Amino acid sequence: MSGGGFGVVLLGLKVFPIVIIGGLDSIPGALAGAVLVGVLESTAAAYLGPSMGAGVSTVASYLILIAVLFVRPHGLLGTRRVARV
Burial, 29: exposed, middle or buried (Cβ in 10 Å; 0-12, 13-18, 19+)? Predict the structure, then answer.
């Protein structure tokens, strides 16, 4: 059997926006990102799901990921590292 299971792939697709939103080097940021994504997906499924379809909750986490990357490219609680070479 090659590759990961279907559940592992879905878990990876859920974890990616959480870690990037929170910051790659921040464990409290990852926890805050998990709470933010969880609340956002539940809210999107409840309010936007009936009118836009069931997949809007998954897309909502990636939309907030793009918005956070525009505002703070290092994540919500990540540290900004400036290296002059």
Answer: buried
Burial class of residue 72 in the structure, from the number of CB atoms within 10 Å of its CB (0-12 exposed, 13-18 middle, 19+ buried): middle
* pTM of the predicted protein model: 0.77
Per-domain residue ranges of the chain: 26-77
Looking from the CA of 52 toward its CB, the CA atoms found within 13 Å total 12
- What is the radius of gyration, based on Cα positions, of the chain? 15
pLDDT tens-digit readout, 19-63: 988 888 888 988 998 999 899 888 888 888 888 877 888 888 899
